[in-house]
Amino acid sequence: MIEIMLSLQEQEPEVYKDETLQVLLLAGTDTTSTTMEWAMSLLLNHPQVLHKAQAEIYAVVGQNRLTRGELFKTAIIQH
Q: In its keyword annotation, does this UniProt entry include Metal-binding (predicted)?
């Protein structure tokens, strides 16, 4: 996820400023929920990345419920 945020920052530095990324990753007690909100927003705004993530998860898990162990087996999460 950090790699995606940094990639987007390179593409659109005026939108994805250092301060914004730092707040998302380091600050406050609601960091996890804020990060998840941003991650979902970025995935929805970049459907090609969303489809890649969906395909990888489906390849690892199939129709079963995703577990934490399986999630970390996906290449998109390892980056």
A: yes
- For residues 15 and 38, membership in a common domain is answered with yes
Domain that includes residue 69, residue range: 47-79
Non-local (6+) Cβ contacts of 62 within 8 A are none
Given a cut of 60, whether residue 51 has pLDDT beyond it is yes
| CA-based max dimension of the chain | 40
Distance CA 26, CA 32 (A): 10
Residue 24: is it exposed, middle or buried by C-beta count within 10 angstroms (0-12/13-18/19+)?
buried
Helix (H, G, I), strand (E, B) or coil at 63: coil
Residue with tokens 């990345």: 49
Indicate whether 46 pLDDT > 90. yes
